[in-house]
Amino acid sequence: MSETVLRVLVVDDHPLFREGLGDIIATMPGVEVAAEAADGEQAVAAAREVNPDLVIMDLHMPGVNGVEATRRIVAERPETAVLVLTMLENDESVVSALRAGARGYIVKGSSRAEIARAIDAVAGGDVLLGPTVGPKVLGLFNRGADRGGRIVPFPELTDRELEVLELVAQGLSNGAIATRLHLSEKTIRNSVSTIFTKLGVGSRAELIARARDAGVGQA
């Protein structure tokens, strides 16, 4: 009887990093790289084609980001485990990846041994958070980021501000948002200004990019 092989899809926009992950996987018995992808769109297509057991997913990529790609893959193939391996370790990225269905989250500063252990753990059904990530998730609960039984990205924002941010990230103007929410345009303008301050961004384009990286406005 042949040994069961864990088939991995590696998703990262840097070829050298994908190659490095391939080298790590090559040292692991019973694990193989089934396919590679350089962005989220390719990742979703590759997952449909090769039916991987595990996806190693970067988050910040051109086009469709890793959060949205994770959401699509998990929706289509809930049995596929997703392990996030990224440079991003801010609160909203962690929360958004977990909400999208990722079962593990580690950062690219992790050692080869830590990455191998994470692959084994997540493939085995465990939920794994790296040593720099776990305390962040606990901190979100401790700060009261759990709203109605769910953790939200950008916990520093109020529910109304999150609602406004969602519409900004979808590309709506202040006037269109005011109409949608039945508020004055001045109220929306003030809310957007407050969001700028709380998130430390300097332009609407920067705000939209940060929101979409966190999975906000992707609906």
From TrEMBL:
CDD domains recorded: LuxR_C_like, REC_NarL-like
Keyword terms of this UniProt record: DNA-binding, Phosphoprotein, Transcription, Transcription regulation
Residue ranges annotated for the Response regulatory domain, each copy included: 7-123
PROSITE patterns for this protein: HTH_LUXR_2, RESPONSE_REGULATORY
Species in which this protein is naturally found: Nocardioides ganghwensis
UniProt key word Transcription regulation: yes
Signal sequence interval, chain numbering: none
Keyword Thylakoid: no
Full protein name: Response regulator transcription factor
Gene Ontology molecular-function annotations: DNA binding
Domain HTH luxR-type as annotated: residue spans: 150-215
Superkingdom to which the source organism belongs: Bacteria
One GO-annotated biological process of the protein: phosphorelay signal transduction system
Gene3D superfamilies, A to Z: 3.40.50.2300
InterPro entries membership: CheY-like_superfamily, NreC/VraR/RcsB-like_REC, Sig_transdc_resp-reg_C-effctor, Sig_transdc_resp-reg_receiver, Tscrpt_reg_LuxR_C, WalR-like
Entry-linked Pfam families: GerE, Response_reg
Residue positions where 4-aspartylphosphate is found in the record: D58
